[in-house]
Write a structure and sequence with these properties.
Layout: H1 19-29, H2 48-56, E1 62-64, E2 67-69, H3 73-76, E3 95-103, H4 118-131, E4 140-145, H5 149-168, E5 174-180, E6 188-191, E7 194-197, H6 201-215, H7 222-235, H8 240-246, H9 255-272, E8 277-282, H10 284-295, E9 307-313, E10 318-323, E11 326-331
Parallel strand pairs: 3-8, 4-5, 4-8
Antiparallel strand pairs: 1-2, 3-9, 6-7, 9-10, 10-11
Helix pairs in contact: 4-5, 6-7, 7-8, 9-10
Length: 351
């Protein structure tokens, strides 16, 4: 009986570790990147991104101007510029007062001193419900409005929305009554009858224009020409507020004067009341001028019940202005540059 020679088969088990594990163990055996020689970092077998990650993983302290910044390097590198470091929670800015400059709701028309439409009332009520999310128990809330029907009705519906959702959330803020504030009135136009809101001057403008066209009294006065241009842009489907912001008109209150009035109203309301939240129902033109001055560019016309939020910083002469996902830090204006009262600061003469 003959036996066949046995064929030796290759062994399939491997006592050595896999290649990736071998490289990992070899890396673990060498000193850390901070203690190793810089020449060792030139090992081409290790990807560059991994070598850089290990350099940052040492937990080294972040320095700025030679001083240690209380943050980690990963936190500091959130921003593109290394010198800007996010604030820690205990270092966040303390806000003393929140002011909401809310545009009025949809109105029945601008040719008369009319109130809100049903949609405008609903818009204001919904905005009040939204602001109610930011109030807490026993927080005093002040409500102010411009002395016009559409602004006053907006303030009333804002207050109803605040009350409704505060009860829904189980909170009990101290919501005050509504007060008119001349500082937050709409921009005005100079007429022979004195300064008038640009809307309330419409009837006087229409009557005078008809008189000049019927009788032919000659040259129209300057205030009538300015108002005719303003309302002509409105009737043509254009943007009269852009015209007011960019084109000097001798008969109209300048935008910067409206901004000064608003700052006076904000600072006066802050001093007069201890409210942490102040809601102001006002008009789009001054709100847009206010935002333009703070942002450094024209961010556009606010929609009905859209607001610009002003957050006054406690213990500092600064504020944060928030509008359409942009935040701008501004210095409070010098009180000597602000109007001493709510009276118009431009000269009123006959046309």
């Amino acid at each position: 009986m003959t036996t066949k020679p046995t064929t030796s088969l290759p062994r399939t088990e491997r006592p050595d570790a896999p290649a990736y594990l071998t490289r990992h163990l070899s890396r673990q055996a060498v000193p850390s990147a901070r203690d190793s020689d810089p020449d060792d970092e030139r090992d081409e077998s290790t990807p560059l991104y991994l070598r850089r990650f290990r350099e940052r993983a040492g937990g080294d302290e972040v320095l700025y101007d030679g001083r240690v910044v209380g943050s980690s390097r990963a936190w500091a590198e959130v921003t593109r510029t290394k010198e800007i470091v996010p604030e820690r929670r205990e270092e966040l800015t303390q806000v003393d007062c929140d002011i909401y400059l809310v545009r009025h709701g949809e109105t029945q028309g601008y040719s008369t001193e009319s109130g809100l439409t049903p949609l405008g009332s609903w818009q204001a009520h919904r905005r009040g419900q939204e602001i109610a999310r930011r109030v807490t128990d026993d927080m005093p809330v002040e409500l102010l409005c411009a002395p016009t029907n559409r602004a006053r009705q907006t303030a009333e519906h804002l207050r109803r929305g605040l009350v409704d959702n505060s009860e829904l959330f189980g909170r009990a803020p101290r919501i005050g009554v509504i007060h008119d504030d001349e500082n937050f009135r709409n921009f005005e136009v100079r007429t022979p009858q004195g300064p008038r809101d640009v809307t309330s001057a419409y009837r006087w403008y229409q009557r005078e224009m008809e008189r000049y066209e019927r009788i032919g009294l000659g040259e129209r006065p300057g205030w009538l020409v300015d108002v005719d241009r303003f309302w002509g842009i409105q009737q043509g489907g254009g943007d009269p507020i852009t015209h007011w912001l960019t084109m000097p008109m001798l008969s109209f209150e300048p935008p910067v004067e409206c901004v000064k009035r608003f700052w006076r109203g904000i600072l006066t309301a802050r001093e007069r009341t201890g409210a942490r939240t102040i809601v102001v129902a006002t008009h789009s033109g001054p709100i847009r001028a206010f935002a333009t001055t703070a942002m450094g560019y024209d961010p556009g016309e606010p929609f009905n019940t859209e607001f610009v939020r002003v957050r006054l910083v406690a213990g500092a002469k600064g504020a944060l202005v928030l509008y359409r996902n942009r935040v701008q830090e501004v210095c409070l204006p010098d009180e000597n540059l602000l109007p001493a009262n709510a009276e118009p600061r431009f000269e009123v003469t006959d046309g």
